[in-house]
Write a structure and sequence with these properties.
It is found in: Cytoplasm; Golgi apparatus, trans-Golgi network; Membrane. The protein is an alpha+beta fold. It has 15 helices and 19 strands. A seven-stranded mixed beta sheet has the order 7-6-15-16-17-14-18, sandwiched between helices. The chain has a three-stranded antiparallel beta sheet with strand order 4-8-5. A three-stranded antiparallel beta sheet has the order 10-11-12, with no helix packed on it. The longest helix is centred in the middle third of the chain and has 17 residues. It is globular.
Length: 458
């Protein structure tokens, strides 16, 4: 929502951004001080003295890293929101195999030295990486008999004779799929994902991921500031009483007895429970540690992916770890956040393989969140379909208000992935429905003659 309010402001729209919370970022906030996190999770008492000063902590509620070459970094660069943030490279990406973790081989040299694969497997994997690097969807000479729109990824793996373990870490730690459904789909998307991973990695070398100092809560604040520079208004602590709809179209939002009128409305599922459908659950466990994770070469930040095959599940388990090096924890402390899509009636048992890697854990905070997707796309074409259905019947449009409304655009809940690519896809999707045109990064560039408040600060 903050990114969209920033982009819409740059595009010349008049934006009012209201938030019922007293802090920026809603679900993707970073909680500070530590005392507030204890309160949020209803833990008795206050943090022990061993945790240091409460205000040294900025704990993310939703753990995610940025792909160095990914869509969110592009959005930050194009809008110049980078000037409000500092980033650090995450030190390593690891994958779980047979109860142990291994560094994801990120270069040809690492692939050849990795104990994840045997000697012959390494050669085949190297050939595969070279193929992916050279692959160009606009140049059939690079296809080598593969049809990117028809050949499945399963067949591509077969072509290079790659074994199950290599398929596991390629699909889940490089292409970052959460399940194995991708195997029977055309290979183009997977090859592009692996290319994104490799290109992101090539930028900084240690891993393809970046993380902002002081926590992810800095991101929504950066985009809120962008919106303000372009004349947008931001109101925190603003209760939302009602979304006002007339003739099936949103006309305003009622708060504290007043109505702020609008032509379009963007909100998350928590504001419109009657217009979304539950599509699953995610469990997240925030763990405070006094030590780096074992077998990560004492990295002060890392990601660990546990592919579903390794633990007999349908979806992967993720761990993101950051530390005092990122100004999010007290000196000598580490924050590891494990997350996965819930599959059974005992989510805590499902996430146990990840927690076992983190022992000993000083304190943990467990949350289970419902995942929602909009049932109402907010576009006119959707309503006219409904109109057509009802017109011949007795109801004649009485269903219009309850089913769909023009110009309410609802985001999806944050999923279990540990990067922002799916979130950016959602942003682009909402943009397209609102504007009626494809999302264009060029549109986000700051206009040279925009001076809202920035010039005076120079």
């Amino acid at each position: 929502e903050c990114i969209l309010s920033g982009i819409m402001s740059v595009n010349g729209k008049k934006v009012l951004h209201m938030d019922r919370n007293s802090y920026y970022g809603g679900e993707s906030a970073s909680i500070t001080p530590l005392e507030d996190l204890y309160k949020r999770f209803n833990l008795p008492g206050t943090p022990p003295e061993s945790m240091g000063r409460g205000r040294d902590w900025n704990v993310d509620l939703i753990p995610k890293f940025l792909m160095a070459n990914g869509q969110l970094v592009k959005m930050l660069l194009y809008t110049e929101v980078t000037r409000y943030l500092d980033f650090k490279v995450i030190e390593g990406s690891f994958v779980y195999k047979g109860g142990k973790i291994y560094k994801v081989p990120s270069t040809e040299a690492e692939a050849l030295a990795s104990s994840l694969m045997g000697l012959f497997e390494k050669r085949r994997f190297r050939k595969f990486l070279v193929y992916v690097a050279n692959f160009d969807e606009n140049d059939p000479r690079t296809f080598e008999g593969v049809d990117p729109k028809k050949t499945t990824m399963r067949d591509v793996y077969k072509k290079f004779d790659l074994g199950q373990d290599v398929i596991d870490f390629t699909g889940h730690a490089l292409a970052l799929y959460r399940t194995d459904d991708y195997l029977d789909q055309p290979c183009q998307e997977t090859i592009n994902r692996i290319k994104l991973y490799s290109e992101s990695l090539a930028r900084y070398g240690k891993s393809p991921y970046l993380y902002p100092l002081y926590g992810l809560g800095e991101l929504p604040q950066g985009f809120a500031r962008l919106s303000a520079i372009y004349g947008g208004t931001y109101m925190l602590n603003k209760p939302i009483e009602e979304i006002v709809i007339e003739n099936g179209k949103v006309v305003g939002v009622k708060s504290e007895g007043e109505v702020a009128r609008c032509k379009q409305l963007i909100c998350d599922p928590s504001y419109v429970s009657d217009r979304v459908t539950k599509v699953g659950q995610v469990i997240r466990v925030i763990c405070i540690l006094s030590h780096p994770i074992k077998n990560t070469n004492d990295a002060n930040s890392c990601q660990i992916i546990i592919p579903q095959n390794q633990v007999n599940r349908k979806s992967d388990i993720y761990v993101c770890m950051i530390s005092s090096a990122h100004n999010v924890a007290a000196q000598g402390k580490y924050i590891a956040i494990a997350s996965t899509t819930v599959e059974t009636a005992d989510p805590e048992k499902e996430i146990k393989p990840a927690l076992d890697l983190l022992e000993p854990i000083e304190q943990k905070f467990v949350s289970i969140s419902d995942l929602f997707a909009p049932t109402d796309l907010g576009t006119e074409s959707q309503v006219s379909k409904r109109q057509a259905c009802v017109r011949g019947g007795e109801e004649r449009g009485s269903m219009l208000n309850c089913c769909f409304s023009f110009q309410i655009f609802i985001s999806r809940t944050y999923d279990a992935t540990t990067h922002f690519e799916t979130t950016c896809d959602d942003i682009k999707d909402i943009y397209k429905r609102m504007m009626g045109s494809e999302f264009d990064f060029e549109e986000m560039k700051r206009k040279k003659n925009d001076i809202y408040g920035e010039e005076e600060q120079q």
